[in-house]
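Renewal narrative, Specific Aim 1. Our central claim is that a sequence can be written position by position from structural information alone. The example that follows is taken directly from our test logs and has not been curated for this report. It begins with the structure tokens describing the chain, in the order in which they were read.
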């Protein structure tokens, strides 16, 4: 892969993670909260749901910034783990999101593929004895 292609893929992921963080906060009491309403009442109370949304947004922002400023195998693996965890949580909360026409969960499959390609394209640092 060319360095330009690698950079294009990486910066597209930076955009996705940072945009997701921003939208989650902007929609704190809207769509973000609506995702959690199918949870038991204890989990979907306003205070706890806001905390969960803000924690997810913070994780998204951290990964986005990590991919922007310190890209590498560890950052790509962290992004893959976060994306997988969020996908599993969203599937547990409301599996119908897999059938949404705009693909809020199905988009994670090509994101995972991009992360795997970036991982494969990034050299492993030499082992220190």
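The sequence written for that structure reads:
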């Amino acid at each position: 892969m060319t360095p330009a292609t690698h950079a294009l893929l990486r910066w597209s992921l930076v955009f996705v993670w940072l945009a997701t963080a921003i939208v989650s906060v902007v929609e704190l009491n809207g769509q973000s909260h609506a995702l959690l309403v199918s949870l038991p009442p204890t989990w979907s109370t306003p205070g706890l749901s806001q905390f969960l949304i803000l924690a997810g947004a913070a994780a998204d922002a951290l990964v986005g910034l990590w991919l922007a400023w310190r890209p590498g195998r560890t950052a790509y693996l962290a992004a893959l783990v976060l994306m997988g965890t969020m996908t599993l949580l969203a599937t547990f909360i409301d599996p119908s999101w897999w059938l949404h026409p705009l693909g809020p969960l199905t988009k994670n499959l090509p994101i995972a593929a991009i992360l795997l390609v970036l991982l494969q394209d990034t050299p492993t640092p030499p082992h220190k004895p």
